[in-house]
Hints:
The chain starts with a helix and ends with a helix. The chain has helices at 2-7, 15-25, 69-77; strands spanning 10-11, 40-41, 44-48, 54-59. It contains three helices and four strands. By secondary structure, the protein is an alpha+beta fold. It comes from Marinilabilia salmonicolor.
Amino acid sequence: MGVFRTKQVTYLPGGLTRTAYSLALGSDFNDAYDDDKPKLPIPATYIIKSNGTIAWRHFNPDYKERATVDQIVNALQRL
């Protein structure tokens, strides 16, 4: 989690989300973390050109808001 902490690319899921993960995983979600704030990485999608530059990105702290297929295809078509 070092990169996550230094780059601030994590979010703190709410109590209901933590409970749902705990039930799905069969263990306490909070036990996987070394502090009292369980974190998850923020989902992100990148399109990277062959020269290594980022041509497009979708980055949203709300884990429910992810890039759509249409957004990705449109970004690729603009390259």
